Amino acid sequence: MTRVRRWLPGLLLVMPSIIAIAVFVYGMLGWNFRLAMTDRHDEISEGSFVGLENFVTLWDQKRWGISVDHAIVFTVVFVGGALALGWLLAFLMEKGIRGEGTFRAVYLFPMAISFVATGVVWRWLMNSGQDERAVGLNRLFDSLGLDFLQWEWFRNPDWGMAAMAIPAIWQMSGYVMALFLAGFRGVPEDLREAARVDGCTEWQVYRHIVLPLLRPVTLSALIILGHISLKVFDLIVAVSGKQIITDVPAVFMWVAVFDSHDPAKGATIASYIVLAVSVFVIPYLVWTLRKERRP
Amino acid sequence: MTVTETPAPPARAEDPGGRARRRAGRARGIRLALLVAFLVIFLIPVYVLLVTSFKPLTEADPGRAWALPEVWTAQPWRVAWEKLAPGIWNSVLLAVPGALISAVLGSMNGYVLSKWRFPGADVLFTLFLFGMFIPYQGVMIPLVQLLVKLNEVTQSLTGTPGVFYGAIPGLLLAHVVYGIPICTLIFRNYYVTIPDELIEAARVDGAGMLRTYRSVVLPVSGPAFAVVIIWQFTSMWNDFLFAVFLTGPQSWPTTVMLNNIAGAQTVPYSQQMAAALLASVPTMIVYVLLGRFFMRGLMAGALKG
Lengths: 295, 305
What we know:
The structure holds two protein chains of two kinds.
Chain A: H1 2-36, H2 53-57, H3 62-93, H4 100-108, H5 115-125, H6 136-143, H7 160-185, H8 189-197, H9 202-213, H10 215-230, H11 234-240, H12 249-258, H13 263-293
Helix pairs in contact in A: 1-13, 3-7, 3-10, 4-7, 5-11, 7-10, 8-9, 10-13, 12-13
Chain B: H1 10-13, H2 19-53, H3 75-115, H4 121-133, H5 137-158, H6 168-191, H7 196-204, H8 209-217, H9 222-238, H10 241-246, H11 254-263, H12 269-301
Membrane topology (chain B): Multi-pass membrane protein
Pfam family, one (chain B): BPD_transp_1
Main location (chain B): membrane
């Protein structure tokens, strides 16, 4: 009894948040899955249960296939690019450099700006006009004598999504840098010194001491970048709107809800996005919890 | 070479004189050069935004795209301000109270989950954390339906239209609720560093949970409050997804208005870029003045600590 009296007030204080999370996160995820399993394809009908039919028929739609392909290309280029650039920046700074504060501040500031605002300038920079009609980066390449570098950017049918990843890399690699920098600095200097005394070259110190210790940071960065990538929405809308040429699942879902007025289809697409993210986030969270429990 | 008490590391022993130091110096020079090059690349979009936003319409031709304005004009800024002002006001009404409410909730949750734990608190915390990673698309349609329903209920109960769907309070509710996980996480990780003995001492002195919170925990919570308020302010200000699903023309925040301005083919680049800069001013000020706290919020997002 006294034990209960000891922890009950705490539970009561957190109760509003527990209810809110239960309803707004888990309740609504469930509600969304249920909606995805009905034939409610307009705003008025009640919709009856059709099982996984929507999940299957979605693949018959050409636009869905295209948006999945786009999401894959975007994810590979964005996650790979941000990870590589962020790591490189951290690597260049980790031993300390004059003006480190300034460098960090500049690499990180894009994080504080909305994708919608950066989308405005990147749409201009990645304008597909070439030669006389060129503005943006194409114009810059042209005037630097690098006109062979001009291309259609996100309007390229095959690699447009790779171009779309550039603003996202610009926005997020500073964050990855900050994560890696904290990781690098967390490696005890004695450990490196000990390896050097044992005759390791600087390269071997990195290879065998520093990089293995950075693995948890890399994993965190991968998870964060990956889940941002799979639900990317603002950036695409801001740079190119609802065009099929840059369609991704999140934009397709928006179109399904607001333009096609098809709640069941919207819910199905949303369910796929949730599943894609859950597949790697849930194991990560479980792993984090286990690690914390270990003394 | 003279006899030394401790043997020098082999790599250095092979290097007579200052060759090692010179090589280290050259490496540092290369690192610095690369960092400066990336600095310039990172600032290109800022240059374009600033330069274009001060150009009169007569200098809009592609040939002068990268040049400084010949005549500097504030006209695009004035037009952008007129178009964007209602959205900026809506964003202020959203982000300021929203960030404060989030901080209070997060602080209480973090306190309980770190210092006044109940059975199952760890599992509950993990269930909270999943809420941080869910793609919000997965809850958007039910959320819209619920807010529409709440509007109808309010209408039938009070006779006045509800302020849930298509209005700022509904958007604020959504941001506060989906902000609970990250705010709880930041406060919990911060409160873990308060020694348990302090809490226990207050308990022995007969202080209850709330009393302990007020007199022991709250006075040292300043930095965590700063981190959470900045984090929530920034994400509410910059959010586009919730805003585009939950608000209407009267309640559009800055990002939606900016997207409408920038999406229109008829709006000149100079005005678009001035609007984009205007929309970023509040979060940039926060970043410049309080970047240290902003950083900590970012790191918390990585589940570290």
